[in-house]
Amino acid sequence: MRQAEADAEAQEKPGRLIVISNRIPTDEVPAGGLVYAIHEALNDIGGLWIGAGTPSDEAQEGLTEVKSEAYDKATFSLSRTEYDRYYLGYSNSVLWPLFHHRADLLSVYERDFEAYREVNRRVARAVAEIARPDDMIWIQDYHFLMLAREMRDLGLKNRIGLFLHIPFPNASDILALPQGPQIANWLAAHDLVGLQTQRDVAAARETLRRDPDCEAMGNGNWLFRGREFAVLSFPIGIDAEEFARKAAESPVPELQLSPDAPLLLGVDRLDYSKGLVHRFRGFGAYLEQRSQHGTRPTFLQIAPVSREDVSAYQDIREELERAAGSINGAYADLDWTPIRYVRRHVARERLAALFRRANVALVTPLADGMNLVAKEFVAAQNPDDPGVLILSHFAGAAEQMQAALMVNPFDHGNFAHAIDRALHMSLAERQDRHASLRENVFKQDIAWWTRTYLNRLSRVPAYQEDRPRD
Ligand code: ADP
């Protein structure tokens, strides 16, 4: 189609939203905050949701339509080798550890990067085939950092946004990435790069400033080889109303605990970024110093395994089992197991009810983009008798949730002290802290997040190839 015809068509039809994420939900109405929020946005605006298909022997060009009612869904194809190299390899054994400040865990192989580039290129070609000039393209997360650059190279002039759900790495961590010098170029291909926190924006600024082609313009705007783009923070939220309702209405699962026994709760995917071993040791330090005559708290950690095909995830599993065993060995009694470690996935209703029953939540990652569990715990509480959130400085949520009891997960003494304080906190202090946390969790919820991001992206002026925007 010639440009004039494409422009005329775009004027007739309002632009669609094209979302690209690693996975697309299979349910007609998906459960879970982010996928539900994207589902709602697509329902409102109309458009297309693209995600990876099931890996097969050989990858195919283009998109495969998936049956869906309100808006379109499609998958791009991945070969099994690409799944190993692009997904398990470059995405989850290079970018994930690096962006979580674990350069020591990197497994760098050129062939993994080549597969990552190939998948990003194939998706770019597929989108370029179907995108209309007025469509807004919203890329999700670290699996597609090069996608916008590849789309621009194919001539796409659409509004393109990226939201990175994980932390942005420090400039010194990026030195460990062979492709580090290209990151500014990849980011600059978007119109809007959304990050979780101000801390992430500051880290990105450090990297962009080092690039000779990048110039800071203030207010989060940058100029890269004459083209403007923005890097701003949009802290993601949860569907707080829905989660609070679930927590109030669902029965608490049977725990074999007396109703007034103090319950500490941790809920995480089993991932080295979540600080689970540090958490177990911090709880161990608390047990060491607690009065033998006080109440005996139970710490329930729910942590289903994830990414089992990546070796760093097998190591953490064994380390955690050893830590739980040795702490229980030292402190358990005939009628008391201090740490209960459950590897099962728990249904959302049961999880919400458990959050409400818990006296204390331990949300203590060593690095985390946001951490939605912190927000879910707050939403689930009974405001008249709320539990206490113990939150790590290193969760993205810490920026909005300073009314939590803040801890340094590396400092076991500090951790033990926070648990003691939480278990003895007065009702008035619990209520005060909770009211302040709750206000933010309900106000900046997931609908606020999608709305704010998409409003900003839709206000980007039309694409200018070689001349800065006004
Ligand atoms: P991440 O995206 O790194 O896993 P988040 O805390 O941001 O971490 O989001 C995790 C989501 O998964 C939350 O909505 C949480 O309730 C859910 N979740 C975590 N662990 C479990 C579990 N054991 N069973 C069910 N849901 C879980």
Explain what the structure shows.
Its EC number is 2.4.1.15. The longest helix is centred in the N-terminal third of the chain and has 21 residues, at 110-130. The chain has a ten-stranded mixed beta sheet, with helices on both faces. It has a six-stranded parallel beta sheet with strand order 13-12-11-14-15-16, with helices on both faces. Mean pLDDT is 92; it is low at 466-470. The two termini are 29 Å apart. The protein contains 16 helices and 16 strands. It is an alpha/beta fold and 470 residues long. The chain folds into two domains: 3-237 and 448-458, Rossmann fold; 240-443, Rossmann fold (3-Layer(aba) Sandwich). Adenosine-5'-diphosphate (ADP) is lined by residues 267-269, 302, 304, 345-346, 351, 370-373, 376.
Helices, strands, pairings?
Layout: H1 3-12, E1 17-20, H2 33-45, E2 47-52, E3 63-66, E4 72-76, H3 80-99, H4 110-130, E5 136-140, H5 147-153, E6 159-163, H6 171-174, H7 183-188, E7 192-195, H8 198-209, E8 214-218, E9 221-224, E10 227-233, H9 240-249, E11 263-267, H10 276-289, E12 298-302, H11 311-331, E13 339-342, H12 348-357, E14 360-363, H13 372-380, E15 388-392, E16 405-407, H14 412-423, H15 427-443, H16 446-458
Parallel strand pairs: 1-2, 1-5, 2-4, 5-6, 6-7, 7-10, 11-12, 11-14, 12-13, 14-15, 15-16
Antiparallel strand pairs: 3-4, 8-9, 9-10
Helix pairs in contact: 2-16, 3-4, 4-5, 9-12, 9-13, 10-11, 10-14, 12-13, 13-15
Organism: Jannaschia seosinensis
InterPro entries: Glyco_trans_20
GO molecular function: alpha,alpha-trehalose-phosphate synthase (UDP-forming) activity
